[in-house]
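Predict the assembly for these two chains.
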Amino acid sequence: MSHGTLPVYWRLFVAGFQQQTAYPLAMFGGLVANLTFGFLKVAMLFATVRAAGASVQGYTVGTMSAYIWLSQGMLGSINLNGRIDLADRIKTGDVAVDFLRPVNVQLATVATEAGKAVFALIPRAVPSVAIGSLAVGMTMPRTPAPYLLGAVSLLAGIVISFSTVYLVAVVGFWLIETRGIQIFYMVVSGFFAGLFVPISLFPSWLLAIAQATPFPSMMMYPVDVLTARTTGAAAYGLVGVQFAWLGATLLVGHLLTVVGRRKLEVQGG
Amino acid sequence: MSDAVIETDCLTRKFAVRGKGRKVVTRTTMCAVDNLQLRVSPGESVGYIGANGAGKSTTIKMLVGILVPTSGTVRTCGLDPHRQRRQLAARVGVVFGQRSQLWWDLPVRESFEILAAIHRLPAADASARTAELTEQLELGDFVATPVRQLSLGQRMRAEVAAALLHRPRLVILDEPTIGLDVLSKQRLREFLVTERLSHGTTLLLTTHDMGDIERLCERVLVVDHGSTVYDGSLNGLAQTAGSDRILVLDFVEATTDLTGIPHTKHLGSEVGGARQRLSFDSENTTAAMVLAAVGERAELRDLTIEEPDIEDVVRRIYQARR
């Protein structure tokens, strides 16, 4: 990176953040959906914990609640639906405009999307966690360390989700319409990211599969670090795994962009 | 030769066209740009015209590095556009009339700030340039308005400002006046004339609007099926293609066909002769002389003059070659 590169992507990050402020009602709608499904998860997972006799795989009712509300709150910021604007821009040909700028299109895309996602923490994650905690209570760490490392882990999770979804979008250079892959992504990602149940409740073979994908790095690991389910060296280990996935997805995305750009046929004149 | 702003040699781009037959998927190759030879010198103002699908947009996309040529070479501002896309982006400003480069949900001013950051303009420089463009393109009333709430005319002016913010040496406008009303078109053209005069910018523009060409371009290129069929001045184009104007005449009452008026051709009559269309050759006669001759024969109620549109000129050039 040459001198003065970082401010460019920082500005795009801020632009994404600002753009997201334009639709408060949509944010509110998202929050309502988060809460509804949050209470559904409470009903099912609390029952699971109680049926197992106050603890399942180390989860108590209090820590399960923390998992539920943190994961629900992150849902507005972690892209698990597989779709970003770039996919549409490739389909309509508007991607031509992106290539007219003196920026790395991959980094510009990820920076902008991450900016939108970080904004969504305010109207979606904060109220989600607050309401959940008031309604059913939750057990959270009492030392600052998990929160500090957790913030890094959460940011990494957000960026990984977009550097991975970027891979789905960029396949559009070849296929133009990527909806099929996007739907497949959506089905798989939430499950392996630990959106429905914590992945440690999976049977070991399924857990191994999940751990071989980038999806736990998007949501499960940040939740584990934030709730201090994983602490100390193991927590740093999870963050390390996250950064490895971040590097890997960015690298693959870069290669696909370089090769795919040669295949690009701008749609729509 | 190396100081050309645009230089192409045998530039060619083919696309695979997938057609669906009854059972088989056929693949044919379509040549959008065919051995294009083009050289544009600094400060020139070039109109690039041709029918839809003639290869204009494809050429532009190769000039700025969005598309890879199938064969041949292209250099823009001395750079290889595809390989040096990002360096080139600092030297070229592009407006695609049908696409937006502004941030839809943000105020116009915000888009300019983001673009200034992307182009790494020093803050003082960026604000001076923004002020200059805001004044000249009369953006003052709506710089604080989100882009999605602008009218088309307002948005196009903002798009042009966005493309020129970094003072590009080469400005490429792809259908900049599409969908604009007469006043908006005129404002935009006036601005572009001023901008060229004060900054020596090279201009390449595609359009379907003869007015754009007449007011902005010294040189005209007509392209057909991916290759250049005319390259020269606008006057030369008119001579090649003919410069007929059409008069639509409405009479008080039905009138016999107006044949035999010097330098005119009777094109047709409607409503029993109460409306007639005459074409006249503006090289040899004037509208006033034609009207005087018409007035001797019948009482006029109303008239309109139709300028030849670009499609007509292009069609005539295409026909002349075939």
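Residues 263 and 284 of chain B are 7 Å apart (CA to CA). The longest strand of chain B covers residues 25-40.
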